[in-house]
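Q: What does the predicted 3D structure of M64 family metallopeptidase look like?
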Amino acid sequence: MRIRASVRTSGRAQGRDRGAPPGHRRPAPLRTAAAVGAAFAAALALTAAAPAGAAPAPAADPAARPAQPVEYFTGPGGHPRHTTVPASAPLAPAARTSIAADGDVTPLVQNGPVADKLDVVFIGDGYTAGQQEDFHKAARAKWEKMTAVEPYASYTKLFNVWAVDAVSQDSGVSGDPTQDVVRNTALGSAFFCSNTERLLCVDTAKVEAYAAKAPAADLVVVLGHSSKYGGAGYNDVSSQVGYDGIATASSDNDQSDQIAVHETGHSLGKLADEYDYGQEGTYTGPEPTESNLTTLGADAMKSQQKKWYRWLGQESPDGGTVGAYEGGGYYEKGLNRPTDNSIMRTLGREFNLPGREAMIAGFHRHAKTLTADVPTGQPLARSGALRVTPLPGATPRWYVDGREARAARGATTVHPAALGVPADGRRHTVTVRATDPTDAVRDPSLRSLLTSELSWRVTG
């Protein structure tokens, strides 16, 4: 791995759990891992199935490979759809060798150590060696547009952003502008995947290899070098690197950022899709595990104190009030969603109130509310100094052996002696704690994620 600028190559957190938090992204039995094949068969039965076709590249016969579920987007203001594509083949030795020599890493946004932040990785495809700065510019622009959407806009300090170069032989991607156009690119990006024009597929095995070049990867976005509208969401991939899914989007289309935002609703917020296929279909399964779908009506939610009952009747940023709106999870009937039309139903919309709550909790599953310049495992003298950086709005509270030093409340730089650590030659514990003060998270089980704590052993 080659990292440009002043960044430690040893930045990957040792022992950091980058696996997905407990719980699936989709309502059982809609898209759970165990029933994904049956789920998509049921979902696709409600709409016209895309003709079978070969995904771009690898050498093995695509028809012989397992099916990979993907989400795609027919237009900027439309409902997403689902289909399956052939899963990517394992990397051939020649591909491994080529990728090993490629993949320079450039930090685009740095807010703290990878162990304490949510790390977003952009990988470019269809950029030649001389176009990598164009890719970096496109990645910065996409991130700026993504973080204009709430709750991203309020939580930009929780993220690090990395750009991983993937040098392509040809400029652009296959299927742009027409299906017969074929280009040789590092990740095999192609429109017309499975004969669906706006479906922008990639070789996920190659994406995994390039994502591993970054110091850490919690989210992965592949930017295909194109101005044509399109993208995809791979939300059922298994990653050894630790990210939950892959979003693809056109680099130079000014509306494709909404695809990435929607996909992070699945990967970070663990939110279900709130749309149906517009045809008859009634859900008869168990109560979904996702926070934004339920079989209950508003009165039942309130009386049983289930799902988004805390938000019922509240004005929602996506328009209207929170209630129980029939249709969602690909079914027209039998499932209710919180609002009429959030971004989990239609691109270009806002997250609704329950969706924002889930997204903020997802941010905090990966990122801490405060970071420190002195590692917690490092011994500290009574005369030393501690400096912390809290999330904007969070108030640090300092403790010595469990008792708060009230005079230091809100301080970001402290000295253990001034906190009250006695000069007795014994070892004492200095702790700092901070909580995100947002009122956008009401569920107590999620609010517990909003508090971070750091401790040091200090010799008095």
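A (community wiki): The structure tokens above were generated from the sequence. Residues 237 and 421 are 50 Å apart (CA to CA). The longest strand covers residues 427-435.
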